[in-house]
Amino acid sequence: MTTTRRTQQERRDQAEAALLTAAAELVVEQGVRSLTLARVGERAGYSRGIVTHHFGAKQALVERLARATQAGFVPGLDDLPPGLDRLLRLIDGYLGELGRIGVFNRAFLLLWTEAATQPDLAPIFRERDTAFRADLSDDVEAGIADGTIDPGVSPAEVAIAVVGQLRGIALQRLLDPEIVDTERLRRSVTGYWRRALSPR
Prior knowledge:
The chain is mainly α and 200 residues long. Helix content is 70%, strand content 0%. Helix 1 packs across helix 2 (37-44), helix 4 packs across helix 6 (103-114) and helix 7 crosses helix 8 (155-175). The longest helix is centred in the last third of the chain and has 25 residues, at 122-146. The model has no long low-confidence stretch (mean pLDDT 90).
């Protein structure tokens, strides 16, 4: 029987994934303030030295975790051109993912709310929210250009409203999952935005 040895890059990627998962679990269980490199290493089964080697300091770990928790939240959108269809699929997909809220999604929401009072987190989440709103604005602008979205709407204002609505629903799902029926919301929220953006 032959075993294939993993490359150094594969071992590094596996260690980083384990460390980020451990960090997300600790944020969910105890909050970001209690996060330490030693605790992350212990939870993941690695030494603190490995955590330090990968991230250097807690701030870099939190930044990487923030980026990892936001990456690819709604799969399958990369191949779609900007426009109304992509925007509605993003809304639908975001709400669908909330129905399967996992540790990374919960960690993201907790980090996002803490960013309001944590000066070291605020720039990371401002940057990510700015990029999210820019993508949504691009969808609205493309829809205006192709005639599927009312030219009287403001792309920037729609983006702010969509982000606010999605994050608000996500926080409610986190706090009281029994009252948030994500499957029903997928239909109603997506339908609301289709009607609100349709040309008059």
